[in-house]
Amino acid sequence: MQDNDNSSSHSSEDYDLQINDTIPYYESFHDETINIIKTILKEPKIWLDTGCGTGTLVKKAIKHFNNTNFILADPSVEMLNLARSKLSKQQQEKIKFLQPIVTSKISLDDDLKPDVITAIQAHHYMSRDDRFKATKIVTIF
Predict the structure, then answer these.
(1) Ordered alpha helix ranges (H), 1-141
(2) Does residue 4 lie within any of the structural domains?
(3) Cα(50)–Cα(103) distance, integer angstroms
(4) Which end of the chain is more exposed for a tag (fewer CB within 10 A), N or C?
(5) What total number of domains does the chain contain?
């Protein structure tokens, strides 16, 4: 096992295999998030996933939202690389990957204002002050 390369307790390469051992029903977070968005917005134009990890949420969501463009951000370059490899070239046509970045530092052009912002299991690793900063920055989009 390699040194930890992200904020979770699992190395990036092991994350998908081990997350359910740490958080039972982890996949339900993704499924229910998709269901809520389908109910409320039907088809968002832009979706920002601020802690995209290995891209599992977006891989699932892209199947439900044909006209949605996704922006993926994560502070871990390893997680972003895994997300890129997980998502097919066809799917990546609808995805913009940001450089490794924490949520509180994300800045988007006016034409990239998201209708949906997710951070599933991402911000709880932060200190209280950093969670406040992360939440505050996403409210200005």
Answers:
(1) 12-22, 26-40, 56-61, 77-86, 89-92, 128-139
(2) no
(3) 6
(4) N
(5) 1
